[in-house]
TrEMBL record:
GO terms for molecular function: DNA binding; transposase activity. GO terms for biological process: DNA transposition. This is IS110 family transposase. It holds the Pfam family DEDD_Tnp_IS110. The lineage of its organism: Bacteria, Bacillati, Actinomycetota, Actinomycetes, Kitasatosporales. Residues 11-166 form the Transposase IS110-like N-terminal domain.
């Protein structure tokens, strides 16, 4: 249970994008603060310092420790205040016990402060692991954005290949995650460009990136090229569009690999990492998502 013995004032914050609402209660339940607070360090620090000077230890409680709640918690820590987190579900259930149905920032802040004062067992401590989780939240969110972008770009490439040369799409489309395939399409985006480059040259060019599948891949590419003798109108535009899309896809894949390394470094510092990564089918990205 969260220790509140030495707390002089419980400051509940209903956090918001541009401003928070603060509600301060003494251990006896006397209201000592009830005002909006701009989401800026000087204003927050001034309130924390004033309450600390008058009441001693200040416990700052929020219902959203990440995102819009990150700055007030960081300033509170720096000002010497204790910090805690009241989970949103617990907060909503506790709020149902208070009179009035209207949901306001002032009421929510009062509920948070009073819950911390009277029900400290509902609070969660914000320790180093929570800082790691906050960083993982940002990185995994960005990684998911990159994954969505990779899917969108891959689908666009596959759509164009299906439109102009379905046989070629059946060979290259399922392999767009392989760097050898994106490298190939960056340089030879159309059926004509691939045929002009020649089978032997293409094998030699991609062998360093795909030693085991170079021969098989290029053989399948040329088999696909031989299946279609007609040229669909608009095929020439592939020389412009496909290389650009392939380059974008390569860049996204590179970013995702770098992001995975960053996520892995943070994950290793989390105490739950060995437990999660020891589970079958749980890799770095999945473990990080489970933590956030």
């Amino acid at each position: 249970m969260f220790e509140i013995d030495k707390v002089g004032v419980f400051l509940g914050l209903d956090v918001g994008k541009s401003a928070h609402h603060g509600h301060g209660l003494t251990p006896a339940g006397k209201k000592v603060f009830d005002k909006p607070l701009p989401n800026s360090e000087p204003k927050l620090r001034a309130v924390f310092d004033k309450l600390t000077a008058k009441f001693g230890t200040v416990l700052v409680i929020v219902d959203q420790p990440a995102s819009i709640g990150a700055l007030p918690l960081t300033v509170a820590r720096d000002a010497g205040c204790k910090v805690a987190y009241l989970p949103g579900l617990a907060m909503r259930r506790i709020a149902d016990l208070y009179p009035g149905e209207a949901k306001t920032d002032a009421k929510d802040a009062a509920v948070i402060a009073d819950a911390a004062r009277t029900m400290p067992h509902t609070l969660r401590s914000l320790e180093l692991t929570d800082e790691i989780t906050a960083e993982l939240t940002v990185l995994t969110g960005f990684d998911q954005d990159l994954a969505a972008e990779a899917t969108r770009t891959s689908n666009r490439i596959r759509g164009l290949l299906t439109q102009f040369h379905p046989s070629l799409e059946r060979v290259l489309g399922p392999r767009l995650d392989h760097q050898a395939v994106t490298w190939l399409l960056e340089r030879y985006g159309s059926p004509a460009a691939l045929r002009k480059a020649g089978r032997r040259r293409l094998i030699e060019l991609i062998r360093p990136k795909a030693p085991r599948m170079a021969q098989r891949l290029i053989d399948e590419v040329f088999d696909a090229l031989d299946e279609q003798t007609v040229v669909v109108p608009g095929t020439g535009t592939l020389d412009i569009v496909i290389p650009s899309l392939a380059a974008s896809l390569t860049a996204v894949h590179t970013q995702r690999r770098a992001m995975e390394a960053q996520i892995n470094n943070l994950l290793e510092a989390h105490p739950l990492s060995p437990v999660l990564t020891s589970m079958p089918g749980i890799g770095v990205r999945t473990a990080a998502v489970l933590l956030v």
